Amino acid sequence: MTERVIFFFEVHQPRRLKKLFDFSPANMPERLEDMFDDAANDGILDRVVRKAYMPASRALYESLSRLKGYRVTMSFSGLLLEAVRRRHPDLLRLWQDMVSKGMVEPSAQTYYHSLAWLIDRSEFREQVRMQAELIEELFGVKPSVAENTEFIYNNDIGCELYDMGFKTVMTEGFGDILGWRSPNYVYSNPLCPVKLLLRNYMLSDDIGFRFSNRSWVGFPLTADKYSQWVRDTPGDLVVVALDYETFGEHHWPETGIHEFLRWLPIELSKRGVRMISASDAASELEVKDYVDVPPWRTISWADERDLSAWTGNPMQAEALRELRRMYYFARALGGEVLSYWRLMSISDHFYYMATKMGPTGEVHSYFSHLGSAYQAYATYSMALHSLAIKIRDGLHTDPCAALRVMLPDELCFRLPQGRQLCSIKELREVVGNIRELEESIGRWLSDVFGLSINDVVRLENHCRS
Q: Are 130 and 78 within 8 A, CB to CB?
């Protein structure tokens, strides 16, 4: 029987694109800013705050105020906090009060709730750093626990976060990686000493997916019944991880979800189960074993517990490939271009493109505002095209930015003896010695940078002066 439970709440709203496939060429938005449907985004946020975030937070505040040392862990995307600060400062003040009173422990994640890890490690680190700094600015605390978007995880991600100073990482307790073992213990990474807290997906999904399902054998799910289930679960702790929209948006207030949340801490306390934070668990409990998740078996909490929610079909793969190609130019330009590139890295854009069937497909459709996966891909492709034009114009305005571009391996020019060119700066040291490659290097420059060798010479002279 367990005496500890972690409730982890993911709090995120994306910045959704307009239905660009409905636009004719004559009225396609010219500015990147106008690609995003901010009127709809604000309306959705207002509804979610009214139905879910505010009543759920008040219910938690009420019950946690009665129980010393009971707390939850919440992971806020930077985008969500930006929007809440702008439109719902009363909610932000409530969250700040809960953090200051020790009821909520904020966790780190990517600022844009993005797929940055699948693009570039330095970008991933930067987005996590941005979010952690915003948490410190708004709540006065520095996160010590981290997650990647949607619990996307492998050994390398865990060690990257550990290297950034996060000693504890949250991820999915997936049966395929655990084998016969239980998720209800603290584990470690085989490559570094980061502690891993694993989601109990059965107990999480009992609330997240089944709470209002009248045909479910466990219906109705009451706080006392669920608390007993947690108490009867073997292990050192149970991790219940959910989208915060569960409480009022996914399950409407009429289902009794807020009363369930209000009474849950009380009923748990009656059974001797403490609601602790993720950092509490990491400090109180010893590591049971290690969990080996190599990069080729990367996990998440979505769909089949892999990356297929975002990369499972050719449309998603192509969109991600194009986004990655643009990143290195956007990074060199910085400023507004990089900010818009980061908005395009939001994981939700790719989630809408999934072509899955059955219950999993229904979940994707529920979240998408774009209709079919093909319409989502068309919209995203149009927005990417506009971003490409913005990058091209930026390079015309600031041609020296081309010298700052460092390409990924797949875009580099391969030289003999295993060497490669990944930037214009590296060109000067090799062209003079390998004249026979000038023609093919010229094609590479033209295809990737839109420049000739003579253009590069003029550009270098211009930027030096």
A: yes
Active-site hit among 150, 172, 245, 249: 150
Q: What is the mean pLDDT of residues 280-297?
A: 96
**Is 133 among the residues known to form the active site?**
no
Looking at domain 4-306, which of 3.20.110.20, 3.90.1150.10, 3.30.930.10, 3.30.870.10 is its CATH number? 3.20.110.20
pTM over 0.90: yes
* pLDDT tens by residue, 126-135: 999 999 999 9
For residue 292 the two structure tokens come to 């080996």
Query: What are the sequence ranges of the domains in the chain?
Result: 4-306, 309-398, 402-464
Pair of tokens at residue 380 = 């995203």
Report the amino acid identity of residue 17.
L
Secondary structure (H, E, C), 359-390: HHHHHHHHHCCCCCHHHHHHHHHHHHHHHHHH
In Å, how far from its chain's centre is CA 299? Answer: 13
Q: Using an 8 Å Cβ cutoff, are 465 and 424 in contact? A: no
Q: What share of the chain is helix, strand, coil (3-state, %, to 5)?
A: 55, 10, 30
* Tens digits of residue pLDDT in 88-102: 999 999 999 999 999
Rounded average pLDDT over 257-278: 98
**C-alpha–C-alpha distance, residues 313 and 282, integer Å:** 37
Distance CA 115, CA 342 (A): 10
Q: How far apart are the first and last CA of the chain?
A: 72
**328 neighbors 407 (Cβ within 8 angstroms):** yes
How many CA atoms are closer than 13 Å to the CA of 219, on its beta-carbon side? Answer: 11
Beta strands in 49-138 (DSSP E): 72-76, 104-107
Cross-strand partners of 197: 170, 186
Degrees (nearest 5) of the Cα angle 272, 276, 278?
A: 145
Handedness of CA 63, 67, 73, 78 (dihedral sign): positive
β-strands 420-421, 238-243: how paired?
A: unpaired
Task: Give the residue ranges of DSSP H helices in 334-367.
Answer: 335-344, 347-351, 358-367
% of the chain exceeding 90 in pLDDT:
79
